[in-house]
Amino acid sequence: MNGIGSEMWLALVTCFAAIFTQNILLTTFLGMCPFTSVSREVKTAAGLGAAVVFVMTFTTALNYLAYKHVLLPLELEFFRFILFIIIIAAFVQFVEMVIDRYSPKLYQNLGIFLPLITVNCAILGASLFMVIREYTFIQTIGYGFGAGVGWLLAILAMAGIRTRLNESRVPEGLRGPGITLIIAGMMALAFIGFTGVLS
Amino acid sequence: MIDFFVTILIISSIGAGLALVLVLCEKYVVNYGPCKVTVNDEKELDVEGGNPLLTVLRDEKIFIPSACGGRGTCGVCKCTVKTGAGPVLPTETPFLTKQELADNVRLTCQVKVRNDLSIEIPEELFNVREYETTCTKIEELTYDMRRFRFEIKGGEMIKFVAGQFVQLVCPPYKGSSEEVFRAYSVASDPADDGCIELIIRRVPNGICTTWCFDHLKEGDDVRLNGPYGDFRMSESEAPMVFVAGGSGMAPFVSILHHMRNTNSTREAKYFFGGNSIKDLCLAEQMAEFESAVPNFTFIPVVANPDAGNGWSGEAGLVTEAVQRQYPDMSGHEGYLCGSPGMIDAAAKVFTGLGMPEDKIYYDKFA
Prior knowledge:
By secondary structure, chain A is mostly helical. Chain A has helices at 3-19, 32-37, 42-71, 80-102, 104-109, 114-117, 121-132, 137-165, 177-192.
């Protein structure tokens, strides 16, 4: 395959890998805080997950540009932690303000979750992985989107399980975060099953 | 060296650029203009739109209790928003019951002030605030109970209803690493509004009581907030029966002050339960109330009066003494303060003697 075509294919593979084999939540356990606290209801979890997909896709792309065109030429790679966090925070704030003002409906479904994930380590994690793994720009977009979708998938599954848990008898000491972490562990084991799908 | 400054310059200018975008955004996008918040249909507050209701109210000196500080995780900061709040957000639904949803109860930290709002806040929240006090007197009441007097600094007043409680802020000390809040009923005269008195019984290994008994000294600064709670005398004229032992005495001392201040002629009998004679306290003050409040009787009941101590009063359980005094309680009101076990036992006796359940008022120690 030639040029753009092969790069698109690579981005697609990266995206798929980020969803399944390298699921950011279940293989690196990043973004656990909102994962345990906001997974009580499927609807809320879906909203938060969608916000993560959105923010992750855009911030990894923005951070890629900032890294490639500002930090690398100036040899300031060591500043990436600070710069990435600033960009993520500013971006989230900006988007929140804009949709709060212009689209109440979208704000109700997506916007209210934005402040919750500004400091989500999965968001920063995705940007840092993108640097370590030396992705191209298109691959980065694929990766950011895939990592977000992977996170969404994991929290949706967890919310589904937890709704069922409401009916079951969980030992008292394990209720809430305790059983959630145990289930997250089992889900992580299950996701290992995807390893080897892509080599 | 030049590299060093260039680095700082670049990073700062990126930060400044992003900040500028946000500032402009704040100025032109998030500008909801002035809004009006109507509280309980009477008070109108003129506020700037764009912030959560919780912080808007805090700026107006109305303190809605909140444990998480406005992050939408504790679900404590509830209040009724009648109009203008928009649809219930998914961040709120996990904390609201069906009844609350029907009653337009919302989490104030999640409701943003975008337009004019009409809200309802329980009247007593207007009086809740924090007070800086000095501990001016510590009195030994029994071997494990003390009365503490806290005078409010700066000549400020605290307005409370007899029977309400305050939260004492117990600072970190050797053996406790963080600040904790503990609720104690006020035991002082509501008319004496420059000070608060609390009766505290030592709880073995209790964080706050250990501090009060072993660390707090006269002259120390203490913070407390309140008043809270709806335990108080009813507005009827029905004869009242108080039952409390130990530090459960506190709200009744305050209620008796109030009865004396208002020249109340309502009948009241106070059954004080103690294990042994050494648990009895404040006998002199009770005698004073008996002479100042026309229809008040103090009845100390001792469970195990050792022979030879010359105890001539009521003996046995406090509930037994109540049963001996009253064949029928259907026209009486019961007031209970103490541990959940004691309250449940006494309430059972009251209802057994014909007292309707809604005439039993209680203040359970959590």
